[in-house]
Every structure is written in structure tokens, then in C-alpha cells.
Amino acid sequence: MLKKFTRKFSISAPRLSVRPHVPWYVRWAITLPFIIAAGTLVWWAYDSGLELAGFHRGQAEKELDVLRDRVAFLESENEKLTSQHSADERQAQIEIAAMQETVSQVKILNEENIRIKEDLSFFQNLPLTSGREAELSVHKLKIERDALPDEYHCRLLLVQNVQQRGKEFQGHLQLLVTTKQDGKKVMLQFPQENSPDIAESNLNFKYYLRVDRAFKLPPGAHIESVQVRVFEKGMREPKIKQTAELS
């Protein structure tokens, strides 16, 4: 206690200073101008250094604005060109499809034209026969493979003779197909009895009729011959029959 008292009131006691009290807003009011002036000086020095180094801020901002406008313009042009490209591509696809359809139609017309010429040549050279045996005849009989496996087409031309061409022929057509399956001969009939396709075998014509009948064989069956039978309506025996082999 004595030492503390002596240290506090003796000559070795700490010095006491008295300062006037200054409010904080006064201190900030005095300090803030110096801070602003220092920041302005630093910014001016930085900007002057950039100009001395060859970098002009105003010019750079103008060039940047020009580049932004250029980018926006190019993006707009790119969108327009993309849209135009899509439209041109769709139009090209439509034109290609139309061209393919036209080529297909031309091919069909050419084939039809060839058949018409063949029929014309056939009818020009058709003999004017008469008699019961020539009332109906089968011409141009062909058996051809289809593009699908095990499917075939029977094509022929039915013609009435000159004495019968004023009379309408009604009847149906039947195919008897001789096949070979597993080394054995098997006879198949098209259309089969009570088949939903039997209506397609009906015949109705006065002068001539082109017939095209498709039939499908069981897998592994091979054609040996096809007999075409034409029945007149109400008759159980065929009016005419003719046999052909695979072309």
C-alpha cells in the first residue's frame, strides 16, 4: 500500500495531460476532405498513367460500344440466316419428295404405256375366231415373284371372241399351284373356299380383262407350275384352263 501511494503521488508518478473534447462529427468533417482529396489524386494519377501508357479510356469505351453493337448485329443476322436455312432445307425436302413422286408416277406411266402398246399390238393381230371352243381365251399368262418373300403374282389377259363380245361374262378365277415341300408335291388352291379374298376372284367383263392376282406360299415351298381356271357363273366345271411355269 505504501509503495502504491508513493508511486502515485511521488515525483515518479505518470504524467497527466488535459485535452479538449472534440465531437466525432467534427473530427470526420475535418478528416473527410483530406480522404476525398487523396482519392481524387490517386485516381488522377492512375488515369494519367494510363494515358501516358497509350490507353485512352473514352476511346476504349467508344470502341467497346461499337463492338457490342457489332456483336448484336451479327447475332441478329445469324438468327435470320438460321431461320432461312431451316426454311430452305424444308423446301428442299418437299421438292425432293415431289420429284421422287413424279419419278415414280413417270415410271408407272411408262410401264402402263408399254402394256397398252403390247395390248394394242396383241389386239391388232388377234384372229377373228368363232366357235364354242374360242368363246374365251387366256393370253399373256405369267407367274412372277413379288418383292416380298414367298409371294407371287399371276398376270394374264382374258379375251372373249368376236361373237361373244356383246355378252357380259360373269364368273370367277381359281389358281391351282403345284408346289414341292420337303421333297413332296403339294397342291394349293387360291383363293381357298370360305376365304375372305374369294370376292376378289370374281370376273365381270364384256370384251377383255387384265387380271393380276397375288398369292403367298408357305415358307420353304417351291413352285413347279400354276394352273389358271376360269369358271362361268353357276358352272362347276371350268370354262377354260391353262398352265404356266414360274417366269
Q: What tags apply to this protein structure?
A:
single chain, 247 residues, alpha+beta, 5-stranded antiparallel beta sheet, 3-stranded antiparallel beta sheet, Immunoglobulin-like, 28% strand
Derived structural class = alpha+beta
Number of strands: 8
How many individual helices?
3
Q: Into which percentage range does the β-strand content fall?
A: 25-35%
Between the first and last Cα atoms, what is the distance in angstroms? 139 Å
Rg, rounded, reads: 53 Å
Low-confidence stretches: none
What CATH architecture of the domain at 132-244 would you give? Sandwich
Give me the strand/helix succession. HHHEEEEEEEE
The average pLDDT value, as a whole number, equals 81
Molecular structure report:
- The protein has 247 residues and is α+β, with helices and mostly antiparallel strands.
- It has a domain at 132-244: Immunoglobulin-like (Sandwich).
- The protein contains three helices and eight strands.
- It has helices at 2-9, 24-52, 57-124, and strands spanning 136-145, 151-160, 169-181, 184-190, 202-205, 208-216, 222-232, 240-244.
- The strands form two sheets. Strands 3, 4, 5, 7 and 8 form a five-stranded antiparallel β-sheet that branches. A three-stranded antiparallel β-sheet has the order 1-2-6, with no helix packed on it.
- β1 (136-145) and β2 (151-160) form a beta hairpin.
- The longest helix has 68 residues, at 57-124.
